[in-house]
Amino acid sequence: MIESKPWDWKKVDNEDEKNIWREPSMEAYYLADRWTRQKKKQFLDIGCGLGRHTIFFAKKGFSVSSIDLSKDAIEETKKWAQKENIKIESIVNCDMLDIPYQDNSFDCILCRNVISHTDTEGMKKIINKIFKLLKENGECFLTLGSKNASTYKDKNNPKIDKNTAIRMDEGPEKGVPHFYADMEIIPELFKNFSIEYISQVQDFKQVGTEFKSFWHYLLLIKKGIC
Predict the structure, then answer these.
(1) Which of 72, 73, 164, 182 could join 68 in a cystine, given CB atoms 3.0 to 4.6 angstroms apart?
(2) 3 state DSSP class of 34
(3) Domains in the chain, number
(4) Long-range contacts of range 70-74, CB-CB < 8 Å, 24 or more positions apart?
(5) Which CATH number belongs to the domain containing residue 152 in this structure?
(6) Of the candidates 35, 191, 68, which has an alpha carbon nearest to the alpha carbon of residue 128?
(7) CB neighbours of 138 closer than 8 A, spacing ≥ 6?
(8) Taking 80 as the threshold, does the pLDDT of residue 116 lie above it?
């Protein structure tokens, strides 16, 4: 299994770009409403980054715990919580492959654009850990890189196994492993869960006069009867 490597947040030194990563994802609004209606309370943010979902879910009344492999990300999240006078149960600097919380601790987990930062063996390990961390009927929303992505097909990104490539383009993800999925491997990876929702999406980001595309799978999974 390849060694985990954090995002280099020091390379995100433009405040406008940082503010993009402080804005909650669109799915967060739906999930907060869904999980509130389900009376879920204990929330884990895996890969909290600069704290956008940690702060968002805490403001929505959830009891929030957060982890990230980047020490810079952890410090940014702590500073934001202190500035807003928001109580976070715990903010821990750790590898997602070695999350320190006890089994059956969380009602809901969010890991957006995070758990793909490993290889195939690491992916199996973190999915198993998520299963253990969730309470019965607990839910997790996560995203996976898709093999339709240009970064998976890019020959400049060396393959570690048939599903994993190392990103070599300049930026905060340089040197970070990325696992890419397809509909052949997803049912096997999540066989112990009930898959409530799955979609493959293509997003676009404008860079100058051109549009760069990104492919991901979005999954909502539940620990319970499959």
Answers:
(1) 73
(2) helix
(3) 1
(4) 70/6, 70/7, 70/8, 70/9, 71/6, 72/9, 72/10, 73/6, 73/7, 73/9, 73/48, 73/49, 74/48
(5) 3.40.50.150
(6) 191
(7) 40, 106, 107, 108, 109, 222, 223
(8) yes
Within-domain flag for 125: yes
The CA distance from 168 to 27, in Å, is 29
Q: Kindly report the number of other CB atoms within 10 A of residue 57's CB atom.
A: 25
Burial of 110 per CB tally in 10 Å (0-12, 13-18, 19+): buried
Work out the pLDDT band at 185, boundaries 50, 70, 90: very high
Contact 195, 221 (CB under 8 A): yes
pLDDT at 97 over 60: yes
Q: What is the pLDDT of residue 225?
A: 62
Domain assignment of residue 176, yes or no: yes
Q: Is residue 189 part of a domain?
A: no
Above 60 in pLDDT, residue 196?
yes
Q: In the predicted model, what is the mean pLDDT of residues 166-188?
A: 93
- 136-174 tens-digit pLDDT: 999 999 999 999 999 999 999 999 999 999 999 888 889
* Inter-CA distances, 116 with 28, 88, 91, 180, Å: 19, 25, 21, 7
Residue among 108, 95, 103 at smallest CA distance from 220:
108
**% the chain with pLDDT above 90:** 81
Range of the domain at 95: 25-184+202-222
The whole-angstrom separation of Cα 110 and Cα 104 is 15
Helices (H) and strands (E) in the chain, counts: 7, 10
